[in-house]
Design goal:
Blueprint lengths: L1 E7 L4 E8 L4 E5 L6 H9 L3 E6 L11 H8 L2 E5 L17 E5 L4 E4 L2 E7 L8 E7 L7 E5 L2 E2 L2 E2 L4 H4 L7 H15 L7 E4 L17 E2 H7 L8 H9 L9 H10 L18 H7 L1 E4 L3 H6 L6 E2 L7 H6 L9 E4 L5 H10 L5 E5 L1 H5 L8 E2 L1 H4 L5 E5 L3 H6 E2 L4 E2 L5 H4 L8 E5 L4 H10 L6 E4 L2 H7 L5 E2 L1
Parallel strand pairs: 3-4, 4-5, 5-6, 10-13, 15-16, 15-17, 17-18, 19-24, 20-22, 20-23, 23-24
Antiparallel strand pairs: 1-2, 2-3, 7-8, 8-9, 9-10, 11-12, 13-14, 21-25
Length: 465
């Protein structure tokens, strides 16, 4: 049996290539929308991808399941345990073969047996996949998707938080408890290959290691320490991170399968004459690095550096998937990277690309910066903290306002306009995104250089909880 791990740092998302050397066939678990890595692995190992499987209807990225099955002719295996609007309904108009799996169903990838195990909790239809190399009489491990992570388990509140199933978080937590109780009976030696690592919003304390064992998780994973359902539910629902706004769109897209990339229109390279229309009718993301943007930029553009691992996650807070196209200001050597990253979260309506040289011909603004040591000398000021709730709870600047970066558009009218507004995050990148955003609401603000990290290094007051 051949097993390869493919990891997307931006989404903290793991997918897997499992091959049977005996008959040169392969299975891909939870593929990303960019299927090139799986095709390369198949070619490098002289294998044919015959099976593609998804653990659940993903909320944090566009699945490449339909894309990969269409390209290779593989059968796409998905859960048949969902109900109503929460059940898979994959578009098969392009001839993709879809097989619905129920609890206990099996299929073979050459000499490797895959057993579907229904593990509801993160989502009602969630499947884990037990793997047995038939040269042995016991399983070696399982692909746990968003059920078991290293040090954590998948959050059960996403359907509620995204509006897909209001009021379902407690029921989901109870399902998660029952799934964990069932897994406590399985052998400790089983390897666990999770769907995400540290940084994913699909849990609250994911570990960074790529795999673990069930025995280790039984001892050290907090979710396995609860023997009482009520205490588990309380623990499970407490302290979950903010849910990125684009998650609801991902659920809708992945239920039926994303549009094939080959069907999307070509993205035009635009001239300076198109800038005014782009600003009026779309969202223009300037993907240059923060320092370059701060020095010179087009007013009305949103600075999200493509060099950041969180480029698409941050963009997902502000994209209008339905009514407004996205435009990019991006260098030629970063163009494909930026497009791929946006496609990963379902941004298919990209109206065009401006080169930085073209955009800078329109440049008319700067982002004002302020050092931590200079804040105290600024009259009539207020600090706006735009980090996550967990970061805020750990430490924050006294008397600062708090609005997570994704919630700023809904609260822009509540921000003071009669004070010097200073925006602060952890290191100064997210805060500059928000400063550039606030200009669209007529609010001028300064960016705290280096964020709370610089504030702490300057030995300025902090509240710790």
């Amino acid at each position: 049996m051949l097993l390869k791990y493919i990891y997307d740092d931006r989404l903290a998302q793991a997918s897997y290539f499992l091959g049977c050397p005996g008959n040169r066939t392969a299975l891909v678990i939870d593929p990303a929308r960019d299927i090139a890595p799986y095709l390369r692995l198949a070619e490098q190992n002289g294998m044919t991808i015959t099976h593609v499987a998804e653990t659940h209807i993903h909320a944090d990225y566009v699945s490449g399941g339909r894309e990969l099955a269409s390209k290779t002719g593989a059968t796409l295996y998905v859960s048949g345990e969902g109900q109503g609007d929460l059940a898979y309904d994959i578009n098969t108009s392009d001839g993709v073969s879809v097989h619905l799996l129920n609890d206990g169903d099996t299929f073979m990838v050459g000499g490797v047996k895959i057993e579907a195990i229904h593990t509801p909790g993160h989502t009602p239809e969630h499947m884990s996949y037990m793997v047995t190399d038939t040269g042995a009489d016991q399983p070696i491990g399982l692909f746990s998707g968003d059920f078991i992570f290293a040090g954590d388990v998948g959050r059960p509140d996403l359907l509620d938080a995204t509006g897909m199933q209001i009021g379902s978080r407690e029921a989901g937590a109870k399902q998660q408890f029952q799934s964990i109780e069932a897994f406590k009976q399985l052998p400790d030696y089983l390897q666990i290959w999770p769907g995400h690592g540290a940084g994913s919003a699909c849990g609250k304390a994911l570990g960074a290691i790529p795999s673990t064992t069930l025995g280790y998780e039984k001892i050290f994973n907090p979710a396995f320490q609860h023997n009482d359902e009520a205490s588990f539910v309380t623990w499970m629902l407490d302290g979950q991170p903010e849910v990125p706004r684009y998650f609801a769109q991902m659920k809708r897209v992945n239920r039926t399968g994303a549009n094939l990339l080959s069907t999307l229109p070509e993205i035009p390279q635009l001239s300076a004459d198109a800038m005014d229309d782009a600003l009026e009718n779309g969202l223009v993301i300037d993907a240059r690095d923060s320092a370059d943007f701060a020095e010179k930029n087009v007013r009305g553009t949103l600075n999200i550096p493509v060099s950041s691992n969180s480029f698409n996650t941050w963009a997902g807070w502000y994209v209008d998937f339905i009514n407004r196209p996205v435009y990019l200001i991006v260098a030629e050597d970063q163009r494909e990277d930026a497009i791929t990253a946006l496609r990963e979260i379902g941004v298919d309506n990209i109206g065009g690309i401006f080169s930085p040289q073209v955009a800078l011909a329109h440049a008319n603004d700067q982002i004002k910066q302020i050092d931590a040591k200079d804040v105290q000398g600024l009259d009539n000021h207020v600090i706006l903290d735009v980090r996550g709730r967990g970061e805020r709870a750990e430490k924050h600047i006294p008397d600062s306002l708090f609005v997570p970066m994704g919630d700023v558009p809904e609260h822009a009218d509540e921000l003071p306009r009669d004070k010097n507004l200073i925006v602060q995050c952890g290191g100064g990148v997210r805060s500059q995104i928000v400063v550039s955003l606030l200009r669209q609401y007529g609010i001028e603000a300064l960016n705290l250089t280096g964020g709370i990290d610089a504030w702490e290094k300057a030995d300025l007051p902090l509240v710790r909880e």
